[in-house]
Amino acid sequence: MKVLIVDDEKMIRAVLREYVEFEGGQADEAEDGMEAVRLVRERDYDVVLMDVMMPRLDGFSAVKEIRKFKQTPVIMLSARGEEYDKLFGFEIGSDDYVTKPFSPKEVMARIHAVVKRSAGRAQENADVYEFEGLKIDVRGRSVYVDGEKAELTPKEYELLFYFVENRGVALTRERLLNKVWGYDFYGDDRTVDTHVKMLRGNLKQYRKFIVTLRGLGYKFET
Known about the structure:
Layout: E1 2-6, H1 10-22, E2 26-30, H2 33-42, E3 47-51, H3 59-66, E4 74-78, H4 83-91, E5 96-99, H5 104-124, E6 128-131, E7 134-137, E8 142-145, E9 148-150, H6 154-165, E10 171-172, H7 173-181, H8 189-203, E11 210-213, E12 217-220
């Protein structure tokens, strides 16, 4: 679980980070809305904890910006517990709202609930994957790079989908040959390497997601 903690109070960020990491998660920190928007644009998070009152760019404005390019779940954190603020938070696209002072255990419970709901929605919409400016439409067998359709061969598409389906997993060349080309395929490791090279070329700057594991194979990592 990857969490972005956004708050201008260093102590609050430290406490929440400790709880996230205690439960085996990873946490990044941002001290204002502008930094939060930049990080969400560059990285993929399971949930964002967003304070409302911050310098440079407040939490509500940051959520509005994030919703222009990603649907990452957001839990608002605020000392203002008025009904209007909560309703406004939901209207602009936040998923939950926690009033300060809060219990870190309560925040963690809400994180797990929001992530679980999000995973359910993702399962329903698993035909489309988006990683920054890379969009993969499984049902439509289409891949878009910054809005432009990439022309992939059928095998490149199957290879990319297998990478995405197993993102974060180290994949040996042998496994890729077996799963993408089939157990009865009589090729060798060079077949995989050649197709990965062509696929990377078509993905342009998003080739970075396909990481080479020296002496082993590859991994799709965002």
